[in-house]
Specification:
Blueprint: H1 2-23, H2 37-43, E1 58-59, H3 61-71, H4 73-76, H5 112-122, H6 134-147, E2 157-158
Antiparallel strand pairs: 1-2
Helix pairs in contact: 3-6, 5-6
Length: about 180
């Protein structure tokens, strides 16, 4: 039985290697094209944990509250604990090691820049995705961080201060380090 399994694994490895070599053989030359430098720049909009890609703008929780109530509460709930289709944005502290995990900005997310990025790219949802200004995104990020007891209500969030925010689960994340 062990010899048969070995032979099957060897055959699978050979087939896999041949397919990989064939796919890289150039047989598909002329299909597609390399993106231009501008296309790459337009696509690469996600700021990393250090925030060097964050755009100008700023906002506070006080500025973010009315924006949240108008554009976010319908899905995420008035108290940021989830609602009609939107996940919870606060609560769940201490649940990551339990059998009843509640992922939220305050309990799960490792970097404040990720909160900004997610709001900027995906909120509000379709069909108006991407319609928030950078100031609105900073203000909403500040409001969510404030409601999670991470920052003070009047603390200004911008490209300099946002990466400095120490998220409760920061140590639970391993920063991306491309080779």
């Amino acid at each position: 039985m062990a010899l048969r399994t070995f032979k099957l694994l060897l055959l699978a490895g050979l087939v896999s290697g041949c397919i990989t070599a064939w796919a890289q053989s150039g047989k598909f030359a002329g299909v597609g094209r390399a993106p231009s430098a501008q296309e790459l720049k337009d696509w690469d909009i996600s700021p990393g944990p250090k925030g060097k890609e964050l755009p100008p703008g700023s906002g506070t929780a006080k500025q973010g509250e009315p924006i949240y109530k108008a554009k976010c509460a319908g899905c995420h709930g008035e108290d940021l604990v989830g609602g009609k289709g939107g996940p919870r944005l606060r609560g769940g502290e201490g649940t990551l090691t339990s059998n009843a995990i509640q992922r939220s900005v305050g309990s799960y997310w490792g970097f404040a820049t990720t909160v900004w990025d997610f709001i900027n790219r995906d909120m509000p949802p379709t069909p108006v995705r991407g319609t928030l200004t950078h100031e609105e995104v900073y203000a909403l990020t500040a409001y969510i961080l404030y409601r999670n007891n991470i920052i003070k209500e009047d603390q200004v969030m911008d490209a300099k201060t946002l990466p400095q925010v120490k998220m409760p689960n920061r140590e639970g994340y391993v920063p991306f380090n491309p080779v």
